C-alpha cells in the first residue's frame, strides 16, 4: 500500500497521534504526515504511505487554505482558545464592515510574522514551546510569509459587543501562523485578539472533499475499498513544474544522471518533477549549483 491518504484530522489529536493510529489500523510502519496541525485545529492532513513518504516535504512546502474565526477583546498565551488570557480590553465601539475589510486587505501579500512562543519553531536547537513551558522568554526570529487572499465569511455590516467574533477564509504560503494572523487583525483594529477556531480546508492539491476520518479509514479497510481513497504519489507534486522525458532517458534518470535544463524551465528556481511519457514521477531535480545549464537529482522516486 503506497500513495497519499488525505485524512480529516479531528480536534484533540496531534498530527503524530494520527500517524500512530494509522500505523495500527493499516498495519504498516512507513507512514508520515505532511506538516503539523495543532491539537485544536481540524481539517486536511495528507498522510504519505510507503514510498510516498519521499514526497512529504513537497506537500509541506505547498500553499494551504484555512477557515478560521478571530475573537477580538482578549489575547492568550498560545494565541488560540487553549491558552491563558494575557490581555483583555472590552470592545467599546462598533466596527463597520468597511473597516474590517480594509484591515484584511492590508494583511494581504507578503507580511512579516513573529512565531508564537507556543510553536514548534526551533531556537538554539530547542523548540519554542519547550521554552514556553519552562516560562523562559527567548527572542523569536521573524519570518516573511505570503497571504494570497483573505475573505470575510460574515455578511454583517456592523460588528459590536464586548467581544467580537467573525470568520474568515485565508490562502497562504508555507510557514504562516494563522493564530498570529488573528492577533495581527486585532492589533490593526486596536484590540487584543486570538484565533478561536481553525480548520484547514486545503493542503497542496488535497481538499476536505478528499478526506476520510480515522473511523472511515477503518471501515473502508474492512470493506476492502480503502485503495479507492489513496491518491497516487504524483498527486503530491501537482503544483510543481514538470519535465517529460523519453523512455530511453528514464533509465539514466533512475541512475541519478545530470540533465540539461529544458529551455522552458531555465527560470525555475525550485524543484522540478522529471516524469516519463505515462506521467509517472521518476525523480525530483533542481538546477545544478555549480554547472550552468544543467540540473541534478535531489531525490529519485521510482526505487
Automatic annotation (TrEMBL):
Domain tRNA pseudouridylate synthase B C-terminal: 179-237
Keywords: Isomerase, tRNA processing
SUPFAM superfamilies: Pseudouridine synthase
Xref: Pfam families: TruB_C_2, TruB_N
Catalytic activity: uridine(55) in tRNA = pseudouridine(55) in tRNA
Its EC number(s): 5.4.99.25
Record-given protein name: tRNA pseudouridine synthase B
Organism: Robertmurraya mangrovi
Gene that this sequence comes from: truB
